[in-house]
Amino acid sequence: MKNNRIILILFILLAAVAGYFFFTKQSGTIKKELSDFAVADTASIDKIFMADREGNTVTLVRQPSGMWRVNNKYNAKPEGIHTLLYTIKALEVRSPVGHNMYNNAMKLMATKSTKVEIYQKGNLVKTYYVGHPTMDNLGTFMYLEGSSVPFIMHIPGFNGFLSTRYYANEQEWRDKGLLHCDPQQITHVLLNNLSAPDSSLEITKINAGEYTVGNGKHQLPAYDRIKLNAYISACSNVYYNLLDNEMSAERRDSILKAGPFMTLLIETDKDVLNARLFRKPVTASTRSQYSEETGKIWDYDLDRFYLLQKGDTTWYTCQYFQYDKLLKTPGYFLPSKASK
User: Fold this and answer.
1) pTM for the predicted model, two decimal places
2) CA Rg, the chain, in Å?
3) CA distance 86 to 289
């Protein structure tokens, strides 16, 4: 009886030890596989390639200046790059995919997922696939190339899924900035009002902090420096709102025939924005607005206009309220007592 008790105690002890090592090994294996998703040193990441199941691909490349380029065509939007790099670094496992979910998870990822390749100093260091969100929208199915199972990934403290941060649409990655520069780099601004030339605006830099302001024919004898500095600062960051990729040839020709209502030229030490501004015709989706003077409906959109850059066939949709700070007349810059 005593011997049986000793054998039982030894069995329990051995089972406990075996269980400890088994679960420790399992836990260690899972942690190792999961840790392979994240890249801690995002500062050394110089290229990210993504491809979705719809045939879209995007290659993001870090430039020596620190900026990122999209498919070697456009500057990438900084907020998108920041979010993606943070996600790549902060990824953690929520749980491995169980046997009962494995087949369905892999089938869904085979039809709807985004392949992600991450490069450091020109070398491929990570390849994984980003799939669909979990039922509770708090996790995202991901599969690390070479791994035995997919995992449900998340970022601790973030209540949402991560698949929307990995997208391969070129235009969605494109920075909406038409011009970015240091205000001190701006040397010349010419806003030509084609319907009222006397209201045109021309600003020319003479030296640091000194400018001439006028309409091209006449210069102001004095100007409000605070307003001018704010205007120059506004000219250093010019954005568009949307791309119009579905404009018909007939509509485009009609707009071109009508001609621009203004032209905008901003020259810097290194870059130039040379654009024509066109009225956007009223459409079924345009908010109807009436002229307070005549009572008639305006024949163009009062909220948005088109912008076309020299040497570029892309039609940009811009919003007047964003450009109001640029569409000024010389009188705006008169000293306060004589300002118009």
Assistant:
1) 0.70
2) 30
3) 44
Tokens 């902090």, residue located: 209
Cα gap 50→58, rounded to integer Å: 5
Tell me how many degrees the CA angle 5-11-14 measures, rounded to the nearest 5: 140
Distance between CA 74 and CA 59 in Å, rounded? 11
Residue 146, SS3 per DSSP: coil
pLDDT in tens, 97-147: 888 888 888 888 888 999 999 999 999 999 999 999 998 999 999 999 888
Contacts 24+ apart (CB under 8 A), 234-237: 234/325, 234/326, 235/179, 235/183, 235/186, 235/189, 235/266, 235/326, 236/179, 236/180, 236/181, 236/182, 236/183, 236/185, 236/186, 237/177, 237/179, 237/180
The CA distance from 258 to 126, in Å, is 53
Give the position of tokens 């810059």.
333
**CA pair distance 333, 339, nearest whole angstrom:** 7
